C-alpha cells in the first residue's frame, strides 16, 4: 500500500498557555510544539498496515517549530520518506492547509496510486475542527471517512471502524484510493529508542516540496482569544476536616444527591 | 560474600560484540554457572533469563532469544548479583544494560508507563512530564535562600544537583528544603542549576536507553562547563550513581558526593547544631546505589546516631544484603507491569521487614524510596504507625528553627 500520513504540530499543553498582547493569538515566548496525538496514531496505523500488507509510508508536514524532530522520529519508527512543505503552518487556515496537501499529492510529490491511503489525524487539539481530511477528500475527489479507529485491508479495499458519539461504532467498506481521518491506531504508538532517532538524523534526509500557498490563506479570522472566565459558582468550604466533611454530607443531603 | 567493584571506565558505544573483546567482557565468559546471581536477585524466580542463563545463552550463541524475552524488564538494577558474583563479573554495570538495550530494540512493545516516562524524560528533562520551566519553582518554599548559578554569576564551593523527584514532587521537595536548611546552617557556599538542570539520566542508562542517557549527559555536561565550582553534591542516589560511574565516559571529572557524604564529612561541625531531641526508633534502608554500589553504609548511620534521642535498629536484611525498593532500572515505572505478572512489589516486601523492627521511622537516602515506601505502607497492615523520612529530613528536624 501507498500510505501517506499528514502530520500537524500543535502547542504542548504541558507548558502554560498564555494569550499574547494582541489578544488574538498564543504568547509564543515559552510555547513549545509537539505532534498532534491523533496524527501520531495515524502514523502508527500506517506502520501497522505496512507491517501487515507491505508498502511504503510517507510522512508529510507543513513547517512549524520542532517539526524536523518529529519527521526524523517518524523515519526512525519505520516511515520510508519524510517531506516538509516549507510554508508556515500557523499562517494557513483549514481549507488552505487541505489545498496545500492536495496540491502536493496531485503534483507528483505524493502520487495517488490505486492503492493509496491518505491518513491525517481526525482532528487537532488546537482548533478541534477535524475538517482537513474532509476538505482533502473533496479536493482530490476521493472517498473520506473520519474518526477511524481501525483499518483492515480486504480484497483490494479497506474495512474501517468509525466511532460515533455515545459509544456507537460503524463499519464501512471503502474503495481505494481514499482519505481516512484517524482517531486512534489499533495499538498505542510505539516507542523508538533515542539512539535510533539520533542515527537517523545523521543518515536520513527530509525532502522539501515547494508548494505556493493559496491566495485566501485564512477563511476565518480570530477576533479574540481569552482564557476561560470564572463564573464564580464554586463554593469553598473552610474549617477542620471533620467540619468540612459534615457540611459536605449536609449539602449533598439537602440537594437530594445522597 | 560481598565485594565492592570500583567503577571502571568503559568505552562509550560498547556493544555486546565489542564488549567480549575487552578484559571485562572476557571475564563474563569465565562464569562458573554457580547461580548465586539468580539466587540473590530479588526477582530471580520471575526471570526466564537470570544473569547466569544470559551468560549461558551468550556462550552458546543464542543471545537473540534473550533479547526477544521480556525477562530483563524484571531487573531493578539493584547490584545484588554483581556484588555477590564470586567471579567479579560486572553484571549490573555492563552486561545487563547492554542486554536491556537490545531488549528495547527487539521487543515489539514496552509497558506504556515506562514508555511515557522515557518520552517525558527526553522531552521535558524529567520523568513526570512536568514543564522544565517549573523545575526551580520549589525554591520559593525553601526556609533559606537558595542561590541559582545563572543569577549568582560567580564560582561556588558546592554545586548542588537537585534532581527530578526532589524538585517537582511535594514529598521530594521536603528533602530539598531540608538540604537547603542544612547547607545554610553549615555555612556552605552553594548554588543550584535551577531550570537549567535536566535529569542526570541514571535510569535512562540502567533502563534500556543509552541514546536518552547520552542526550541528557551531553546536555548536563555543557551546563556544568558554564560554571565554576569545587565539588558537586546530589541528594539523589541515582544521580550520584550516574555521575560516579557513567559520566566519566563523557569527560566528567568533578568531585561528586551524595549529600549524606558531605554532611558526614562535616559531622563534628553539624553535631552541636542538632539541638532538638527526636525520640524516634529508626531503621535505615541502604539504597542500592549508595550501599552495594558505593559501599556507603556507615555515613548515613553515623548521621542518624548524631541525632539526640534516635535509637537505630537494623532490618533483617541490611548493608550489602538490603532488599531493593524495586524502583531502580526502570522499576519505578513498572509497578503495573509487575502487578500484571503477579509479582510482589519489592517495596512491600521491604516495609514488612521495617515494620518487624518496631521502628517509628524508616530512614532512606534515595528520593524514589520516599514514594515507594510511603505507598507500600498504605497497603501493608501495621499497628504501630511508621513514617518514611530521608536522613536529611531527620537532621533538619533536629536542627530546630
Quick structural summary:
The complex is a heterodimer of chains A (258) and B (401). Chain A contains six helices and eleven strands.
Strand and helix map with partners:
The complex is a heterodimer of chains A (258) and B (401).
Chain A: E1 2-7, E2 9-11, E3 33-35, H1 37-53, E4 56-63, H2 67-77, E5 81-88, H3 94-106, E6 116-120, H4 132-140, E7 144-154, E8 157-163, E9 169-175, E10 178-182, H5 194-203, E11 207-208, H6 241-254
Parallel strand pairs in A: 1-4, 1-6, 4-5, 5-11, 6-10, 7-10
Antiparallel strand pairs in A: 2-3, 7-8, 8-9
Helix pairs in contact in A: 2-5, 3-4
Chain B: H1 16-19, H2 23-28, H3 36-40, H4 51-59, H5 63-68, H6 80-84, H7 91-106, H8 112-124, H9 149-152, E1 156-161, H10 165-168, H11 170-185, E2 190-192, H12 202-206, H13 210-226, E3 229-234, H14 237-246, E4 255-258, H15 259-265, H16 267-270, E5 281-284, H17 298-305, E6 311-313, H18 335-340, H19 346-356, E7 361-364, H20 367-379, E8 387-390, H21 391-398
Parallel strand pairs in B: 1-2, 1-3, 3-4, 5-6, 5-7, 7-8
Number of helices of chain B: 21
State the secondary-structure class of chain A: alpha/beta
Mean pLDDT score of chain B, rounded? 93
Helical proportion of chain B, percent range: 40-55%
Query: What's the average pLDDT of chain A?
Result: 93
Order of helices and strands of chain A: EEEHEHEHEHEEEEHEH
What summary fits the major beta sheet of chain A?
9 strands, mixed
Major beta sheet, strand line-up of chain B: 2-1-3-4
Terminus-to-terminus distance of chain A: 57 Å
Summarize the largest interface: chains and residue counts. A-B, 15 and 24 residues
CATH superfamily of chain A: HUPs
Instruction: Tell me the radius of gyration of chain B.
Output: 21 Å
Q: pLDDT under 50 segments of chain B (min length 5)? A: none
CATH class of chain A: Alpha Beta
Shape of chain A: globular
Which overall shape of chain B is indicated by the principal axes computed on the Cα atoms? globular
Beta content of chain A comes to 25-35%
Which sequence of SSEs, written as H and E, runs from N to C of chain B?
A: HHHHHHHHHEHHEHHEHEHHEHEHHEHEH
CATH-derived topology of chain A: Rossmann fold
Radius of gyration of chain A: 22 Å
Can you name the CATH architecture of chain A? 3-Layer(aba) Sandwich
Amino acid at each position: 500500500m501507498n500510505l501517506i500520513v499528514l502530520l500537524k504540530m500543535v502547542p504542548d499543553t504541558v507548558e502554560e498557555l498564555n494569550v499574547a498582547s494582541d489578544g488574538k493569538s498564543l504568547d509564543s515566548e515559552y510555547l513549545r510544539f509537539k505532534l498532534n496525538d491523533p496524527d501520531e496514531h495515524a502514523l502508527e496505523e500506517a506502520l501497522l498496515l505496512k507491517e501487515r500488507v507491505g508498502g511504503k509510508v510517507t510522512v508529510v508536514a507543513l513547517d512549524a517549530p520542532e517539526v524536523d524532530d518529529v519527521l526524523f522520529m517518524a523515519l526512525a519508527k519505520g516511515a520510508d520518506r519524510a517531506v516538509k512543505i516549507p510554508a508556515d503552518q500557523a499562517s494557513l487556515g483549514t481549507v488552505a492547509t487541505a489545498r496545500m496537501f492536495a496540491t502536493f499529492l496531485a503534483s507528483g510529490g505524493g502520487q495517488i496510486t490505486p492503492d493509496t491511503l491518505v491518513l491525517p489525524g481526525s482532528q487537532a487539539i488546537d482548533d478541534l475542527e477535524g475538517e482537513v481530511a474532509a476538505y482533502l477528500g473533496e479536493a482530490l475527489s476521493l472517498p473520506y471517512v473520519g474518526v477511524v479507529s481501525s483499518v483492515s485491508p480486504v480484497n483490494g479495499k479497506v474495512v474501517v471502524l468509525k466511532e460515533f458519539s455515545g459509544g456507537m461504532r460503524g463499519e464501512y467498506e471503502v474503495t481505494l484510493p481514499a482519505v481516512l481521518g484517524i482517531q486512534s491506531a489499533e495499538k498505542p504508538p510505539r516507542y523508538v529508542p533515542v539512539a535510533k532517532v539520533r542515527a537517523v538524523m545523521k543518515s536520513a534526509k527530509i525532502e522539501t516540496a515547494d508548494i505556493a500557498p493559496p491566495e485566501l490563506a485564512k477563511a476565518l479570522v480570530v477576533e479574540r482569544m481569552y482564557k476561560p472566565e470564572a463564573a464564580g459558582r464554586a463554593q469553598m468550604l473552610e474549617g477542620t476536616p471533620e467540619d468540612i466533611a459534615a457540611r459536605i454530607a449536609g449539602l449533598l443531603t439537602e440537594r437530594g444527591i445522597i | 560474600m560481598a565485594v565492592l567493584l570500583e567503577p571502571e571506565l568503559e568505552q562509550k558505544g560498547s556493544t555486546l560484540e565489542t564488549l567480549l573483546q575487552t578484559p571485562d567482557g572476557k571475564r563474563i565468559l569465565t562464569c562458573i554457572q554457580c547461580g548465586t546471581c539468580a539466587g540473590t536477585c530479588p526477582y530471580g524466580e520471575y526471570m526466564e533469563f537470570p544473569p547466569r542463563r544470559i551468560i549461558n545463552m551468550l556462550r552458546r550463541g543464542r543471545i537473540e532469544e534473550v533479547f526477544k524475552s521480556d525477562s530483563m524488564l524484571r531487573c531493578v538494577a539493584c547490584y545484588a548479583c554483581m556484588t555477590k558474583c564470586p567471579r567479579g563479573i560486572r553484571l549490573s554495570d555492563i552486561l545487563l544494560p547492554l542486554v536491556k538495550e537490545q531488549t528495547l530494540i527487539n521487543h515489539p512493545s514496552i509497558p506504556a508507563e515506562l514508555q511515557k516516562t522515557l518520552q517525558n524524560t527526553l522531552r521535558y528533562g524529567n520523568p513526570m512530564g512536568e514543564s522544565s520551566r517549573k523545575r526551580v519553582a520549589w525554591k520559593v518554599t525553601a526556609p533559606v535562600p537558595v542561590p541559582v548559578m545563572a543569577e549568582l554569576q560567580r564560582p561556588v564551593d558546592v554545586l548542588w544537583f537537585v534532581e527530578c523527584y526532589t524538585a517537582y514532587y511535594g514529598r521530594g521537595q521536603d528533602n530539598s528544603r531540608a538540604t537547603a536548611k542544612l547547607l545554610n546552617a553549615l555555612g556552605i557556599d552553594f548554588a543550584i542549576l535551577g531550570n537549567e538542570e535536566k535529569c542526570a539520566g541514571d535510569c535512562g542508562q540502567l533502563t534500556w536507553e543509552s541514546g536518552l542517557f547520552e542526550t541528557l549527559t551531553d546536555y548536563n555536561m555543557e551546563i556544568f562547563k558554564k560554571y565554576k565550582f569545587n565539588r558537586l553534591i546530589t541528594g539523589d542516589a541515582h544521580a550520584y550513581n550516574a555521575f560516579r560511574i557513567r559520566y566519566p565516559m563523557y569527560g566528567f571529572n568533578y568531585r561528586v558526593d551524595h549529600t549524606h557524604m558531605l554532611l558526614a564529612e562535616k559531622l563534628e561541625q553539624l553535631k552541636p547544631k542538632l539541638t532538638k531531641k527526636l525520640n524516634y526508633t529508626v531503621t535505615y534502608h541502604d539504597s542500592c546505589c549508595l550501599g552495594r554500589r558505593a559501599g556507603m553504609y556507615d555515613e548515613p548511620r553515623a548521621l542518624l546516631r548524631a541525632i539526640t534521642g534516635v535509637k537505630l535498629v537494623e532490618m533483617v536484611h541490611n548493608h550489602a544484603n538490603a532488599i531493593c525498593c524495586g524502583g531502580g532500572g526502570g522499576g519505578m515505572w513498572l509497578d503495573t507491569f509487575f502487578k500484571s505478572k503477579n509479582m510482589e512489589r519489592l517495596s512491600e516486601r521491604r516495609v514488612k521487614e521495617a515494620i518487624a523492627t518496631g521502628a517509628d521511622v524508616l530512614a532512606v537516602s534515595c528520593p524514589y524510596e520516599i514514594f515507594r515506601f510511603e505507598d507500600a505502607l498504605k497497603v501493608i497492615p501495621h499497628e504501630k504507625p511508621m513514617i518514611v523520612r530521608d536522613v536529611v529530613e531527620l537532621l533538619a528536624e533536629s536542627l530546630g528553627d
